[in-house]
Amino acid sequence: MCLVSNRHRYRAVGELKRAVLIIQRCKLIDENTLYVFDIDETLMVYDGIDRKWWKKKMVENNENESLVLEEWLKQIANHEPKHTHASSFNTFLENVNKNNIVCLTARKGSLQNITEQHLSQIGVKDIPVYYSYGSCKGKILKEIIIPNYPTINNIVFVDDNKNNISSVNKAFYNENIKVQCYYFVHNL
Ligand SMILES: [Mg+2]
């Protein structure tokens, strides 16, 4: 587990639509920008399975994350995911180089099949998905993803978890790559 500071700057956005509009307004859309989207509670949601559900289940299972993960997996296998804001995301896709968009999730890599299946159900296809379970998103982004995009000098990072935002800000502190983070709050 990585320790991260919460002192880094980010913008809070209540809807994916707003995040996409802000990104467009800031003229960050260019060939040298990589767009990184979290999946759960950012791009898609499952009815009734949100952060409150996780908190409740962690308490019920004495903070045993493996048990909660097992239960979560059973739950999502029986739920249809919903896009948090399909129309704005699709508009966004039409305006950017699709080769410069990735998903970065804290899910385990072993969940690749169900993750890609659910993304496909909400219409998110042909976007590479990276899995950061057991590590910090900032570390995975810097060490695993960015080497695949050698011309990138801007990163737009959208996530509903402040720890992930902090870890990304921290990983690129003092780097030549500029990071713009958006803290996505569902139902803000
Ligand atoms: Mg999330």
Annotated CATH topology of the largest domain = Rossmann fold
Instruction: Specify Rg, calculated over alpha carbons.
Output: 16 Å
Query: In what order do the strands lie side by side in the largest sheet?
Result: 1-8-7-2-5-6
> What multimeric state do the chains show?
single chain
Could you name the ranges where pLDDT drops below 50 across 5 or more consecutive residues? Answer: 1-7
By helix and strand content, what is the structural category? alpha/beta
**What is the H/E string?**
EHEEHHEHEHEHEHE
Number of strands: 8
The amount of helix comes to 25-40%
Spell out the key features of this protein:
188 residues; alpha/beta; Rossmann fold; 6-stranded parallel beta sheet; two-stranded antiparallel sheet; 8 strands; 18% strand; disordered N terminus; binds magnesium ion
What does this structure look like?
- With 188 residues, the chain is of the alpha/beta class.
- The protein folds into two domains: 11-46 and 83-184, Rossmann fold (3-Layer(aba) Sandwich); 47-80, no CATH class.
- It has seven helices and eight strands, in the order βαββααβαβαβαβαβ.
- The protein has helices spanning 16-25, 51-60, 65-77, 86-95, 112-121, 137-145, 162-171; strands at 11-13, 33-37, 44-45, 82-83, 101-105, 129-131, 154-159, 178-184.
- Strands 1-8-7-2-5-6 form a six-stranded parallel beta sheet. A two-stranded antiparallel ribbon has the order 3-4.
- Strand 5 (101-105), helix 5 and strand 6 (129-131) form a beta-alpha-beta unit.
- The radius of gyration is 16 Å and the shape is globular.
- The protein starts with 10 loop residues before the first strand and ends with a strand.
